[in-house]
Write a structure and sequence with these properties.
Blueprint (H helix, E strand, L loop, with lengths): L18 E6 L2 E6 L6 H12 L8 H24 L20 H10 L1 E3 H9 L35 E5 L2 E4 L5 H15 L3 H23 L1
Antiparallel strand pairs: 1-2, 3-5, 4-5
Helix pairs in contact: 1-5, 1-6, 2-3, 2-5
């Protein structure tokens, strides 16, 4: 079995090996798991909380968070797809040899994280938005000056996008988009004065999820 098959016949395929899926306005979006354990699970439930019709929060809070989430998810999805990281991706065994990609493969991944301004504007126009919701996630020109010496945390965690010139944006940290968006929503809830309400509603979503998981297992 171990010689003829790439996996055990009783094992589920590793669908989350490189990417995961978040369902939001417009459908499913590919995201990268990131640097935080359960990061996608946390964000998925935060977005579910935002879309709960019974959530009583300022409408501007919802608009700000949902606009930012939609654009970042679209960018993440486009990045993954341009890099060829689709769901249920099958791997090819190379006899345990170290594989060094050829230049064209490097070019493909460089292109995957590069977006022209016109490409972004077309993306935002398709959902009735502009580029403004992306501004909180744009890295400043000198990121080293924002490095936190005490925590060792870089600003790239919260600002995974960077304009290299007026017409070209690059995703410098695709794997921190999930964390950046999660932190943005918490901060926005605090700014709009609805942090306690949102936190309680978020916990309700988690408890409901835990309840249905328990029911399905029984």
């Amino acid at each position: 079995m171990s010689k003829k098959y790439s996996s055990h016949h009783l094992e589920d395929p590793p669908v989350n090996l490189f990417t995961e899926v978040i369902t939001f306005h417009g459908g499913d979006y590919l995201v990268f798991s990131g640097i935080v354990e359960w990061g996608v699970f946390i964000l998925r439930n935060m977005l579910n909380t935002l879309q709960n019709p019974s959530l009583v929060v300022p409408s501007d809070f919802k608009i700000v968070c949902e606009s930012a989430a939609l654009l970042l998810l679209k960018i993440s999805d486009a990045t993954a797809k341009k890099a060829g990281l689709i769901r249920y991706k099958k791997i090819e065994l190379l006899d345990d040899l170290i594989y060094i990609p050829i230049q064209t493969e490097f070019d493909t991944h460089i292109d995957a994280v590069t977006f022209s301004k016109s490409e972004l504007e077309e993306m935002t126009k398709s959902v009735g938005l502009d580029l403004k919701p992306l501004e909180p996630f744009i890295c400043p020109e000198n990121p080293k000056s924002h490095f936190n010496q005490h925590t060792g945390e870089t600003i790239l965690i919260n600002t995974p996008l960077y304009w290299i010139d007026e017409e070209t944006l690059i995703v410098i940290s695709p794997c921190t988009i999930i964390l950046a968006l999660s932190r943005f929503i918490w901060d926005a809830a605090d700014t709009f004065g609805c942090l306690s309400v949102f936190t309680e509603a978020y916990h309700d979503v988690l408890f409901e999820y835990k309840y249905w998981v328990k029911i399905s297992l029984n």
